[in-house]
Structure formats: C-alpha cells, structure tokens
Design a protein that fits this description.
Layout (H helix, E strand, L loop, with lengths): L15 E7 L19 H13 L5 E8 L3 E8 L1 H6 L2 H9 L6 H7 L6 H17 L3 H20 L11 E4 L3 H12 L1 H4 L13 H10 L26 H15 L9 H10 L3 H14 L7 H10 L16
Helix pairs in contact: 1-6, 3-5, 7-12, 10-11
C-alpha cells in the first residue's frame, strides 16, 4: 500500500525532493501520437512554463526539471525559512495568485475591517495556506491539474491525463542532490532526444546554459552559489561552471556516438562528493532503477528512517554507489 506523502517528508533531514509524474492513456501523449499522426510537443512547453510560474507562488525552488514525451521530472527545494518569514498578508497574496480563497480572505486582502469573531477563522485559514505553500504535494497538484484540464480540452475528452500519484524521493545529502539533478538534466540525452545538454529542450540544463552564456543564472531556478561560506545566500553550494562541466562530460560518456571522458577538473568534483567515476556513471544512467525511495549515504538514510520511525531501510544496498 502506498505511504501517505507526509510520511516521506522529513525537513529535519533534507529540504530536497525528486518528483516524477507519468501520463496514462497512450505512451508519448506529449510527443508524437503514432495513431493519429499528431505531434503534441507543444504540451511540453505548457508544462515547462507552469513549472517556472509556480516558483513565484510557492516557497519551493526548482533546482532541475526535464519534461519528456510521457513523463516529467522536477527536483524541488522546500524553502521553509521563506514561508515562515511571510506575513499573514504575504501568505494570502501568494495564495490568491492561484486560488480565489474565500470571502474572508478576500476581505482581508482588500484591507477591509475584520470582525473580532472572524479573526480566529482567518488565522486558521492562513495557517492552512502557509503549510500548503511549502508542500510538494500541493505544488505537484497545481502543476498537474491545469495541464490535465488543458490537454483534455484539446483532445475533447475527459478522464485522467496523469497517473494517480506522483513519485517522490528524499535526497538526503549533497551528493544525492547533484546526482539526481544530473540524472534529470541528462534524460533527453539518454533517450536519444538530444545530442548535447544545450540542445535538450524543456530542461533546466538548457535554461542554465542559455543564462550562463550571458554571464547570468536563471531567476526561476535555484542558483549555484559556489563553495559553502559564512553568511552565504540561498542556493546550491557548488560552482555553476563545475556542474555544467560535470553534466557535459557525463553526457558525452553515456552517448555511444560521442567520444568522451570525465575530465580531470570534473573528477575533482566527484572526489569532493566521494563518488568514484564508475559509480557516478551508474547512478546518473540508472537512477530510476537503483532508487525507488530516499537517496543518500547509508548514514543519512539511517537517520532519515529513524526520524520517520521506519523499521526498515529500504534500498540500503544502493547506497554503496555513493562511496
């Protein structure tokens, strides 16, 4: 029986989670439909645009994403500090970007007088909204439902577009986060949909490369901020250049028609992550097969299971690849 989503989230252990949703009906419903001859690649654009729009609403950052022909991947970072620092008005304004709320929240948003007997109900509603705005289940719901309605309207049909539940995995340490990001960014290359990362449409790596050419980082993605230091801004504690080189080297190695190898500079990053090259290649090509639950070192996995009172450390054998 599937576990409730709340039993898989432990902010005490990590704020990073990998989520994956798959379509139903026929394969490649977002790509070429061999039965009708129609191409639905424009729907991948719908998904990408909505992913990036939702980062302006939720206290959740997107670190990586890939919109494929019949599924999507997102790596999310829950920004609990930001959502806790939002004022009550901030919470209402953020929620109203997606939903109408109710008469009481609309009255509060307009600056109208709140009656004393309404204050308790308003505070309770704001607390609910605050928790939802940092909830990956609500993020995925607000991503998947509009796309399903739009696709059904285009197909002039009703019913499910996505599978009932999205898959989520806790990424328990920095090695797991970078490995999962690279796995997601390299999805089109493994699927022979693109030859290089910069040609990988509807992916975060393409967004990062386009911005890097201008000496920038995408405003809609969690930035790379370099090595850890005191008073550092929010972001991924690695160099953007190191990550781009790592993904490029890995992509060349896993393509049969590309001559490539892990460069010496990239190998230094893997050494910092404590991952041998052969393990890195296995992780980034077989991540979906190796890990069906939380991902990280055995020590991190043990702590995660203890905090969530899980009796068994499922998939512990796959942790060996992070050493």
């Amino acid at each position: 029986m599937p576990r409730p989503r709340r039993s898989q989230i432990s902010l005490e252990d990590t704020s990073y989670y990998h989520c994956c949703s798959r379509v139903v009906r026929r394969a490649f419903l977002c790509g070429d439909d061999k039965y009708t001859g129609n191409n639905y690649d424009h729907r991948r654009g719908w998904v990408e645009s909505l992913i990036l729009e939702l980062t302006d609403v939720f206290a959740i950052d997107v670190t990586a994403y890939a919109v494929m022909s019949n599924h999507l991947h997102v790596v999310l970072h829950i920004d609990i500090e930001t959502v806790n620092n939002w004022s009550d008005r901030d919470v209402i304004e953020q929620w109203h970007k997606l939903f109408k709320g109710d008469g009481l929240t609309q009255k509060f948003a307009k600056g109208q007088l709140i009656e004393p007997h309404e204050v308790t109900r308003l505070k309770h509603t704001i607390a609910i909204y605050r928790s939802r705005l940092c909830d990956i289940s609500w993020f995925m719901r607000c991503l998947n439902e509009p796309i399903a309605r739009q696709a059904n309207q285009e197909d002039n049909c009703s019913g499910r577009f996505w599978e009932g539940r999205f898959k989520s995995q806790a990424l328990l340490d920095e090695a797991a986060v970078l490995a999962c990001m690279a796995y997601v960014d390299l999805n089109p290359i493994r699927a022979n949909m693109a030859a290089t990362p910069e040609q990988s449409d509807y992916t975060s790596i393409q967004q990062r490369i386009k911005a890097a050419i201008k000496g920038e980082q995408p405003k809609t993605l969690l930035p790379f901020i370099g090595n850890e230091r005191a008073n550092q801004p929010k972001g991924i504690a690695f160099s953007l250049q190191d990550y781009l080189e790592l993904v490029d080297d890995t992509g060349r190695v896993i393509r049969d028609d590309k001559r490539g190898a892990i460069s010496q500079s990239t190998a230094k990053l893997l050494t910092r992550l404590n991952i041998p090259q052969q393990n890195w290649l296995k992780i980034t090509t077989e991540f979906g097969q190796l890990f069906h639950g939380p991902v990280g070192s055995l020590q991190e996995l043990t702590q995660y299971c203890e905090h969530l009172q899980k009796r068994r450390r499922y998939f512990a054998t796959s942790c060996q690849y992070f050493h």
